[in-house]
Amino acid sequence: xxxxxxxxxxxxxxxxxxxxxxxxxxxxxxxxxxxxxxxxxxxxxxxxxxxxxxxxxxxxxxxxxxxxxxxxxxxxxxxxxxxxxxxxxxxxxxxxxxxxxxxxxxxxxxxxxxxxxxxxxxxxxxxxxxxxxxxxxxxxxxxxxxxxxxxxxxxxxxxxxxxxxxxxxxxxxxxxxxxxxxxxxxxxxxxxxxxxxxxxxxxx
Length: 204
Known about the structure:
Layout: E1 3-6, H1 11-20, E2 27-30, H2 48-63, E3 67-76, H3 97-107, E4 117-127, E5 133-144, E6 160-162, E7 167-168, H4 174-180, H5 182-194
């Protein structure tokens, strides 16, 4: 195995995955390095696991390369787990995350801080041309902050507050984020199955 495809069109996620997986004994390639663009698959699964495998299977089939993919989202307890698997399409698929975050905050108006518990959840999937498949999971708990704060990270990071460090996920360094994040956990879990004895970078 010489190459693994990072099956995401999100450049922020690609950058994060390259950090998390930097120590793997393979070349990591991403969609932007392919000879010609590949249309994105329809992510119509009912769970993060469904969507992660939709992507890893699709890109493995299209390229003939082993493909790593993930699906992740924000689960807010006071909103019955929403936006959850719909996080990327919340408040409209093409709307910026500033609008999606504003929608979450609007729905939580008047909800006391101790009832604003939430978490990021991630499932990472791997599909190989020979039919082997693996997956790993991760979750990171926090509280929905009263307003977005921080300019690091991406997505909903500015509104997930981490009580132990008294910062949002968008206010901590990439090194700190990779060491504790839902995506870091999920891919380290995945790597432990795909490469027994190897480890993804823990950034700690």
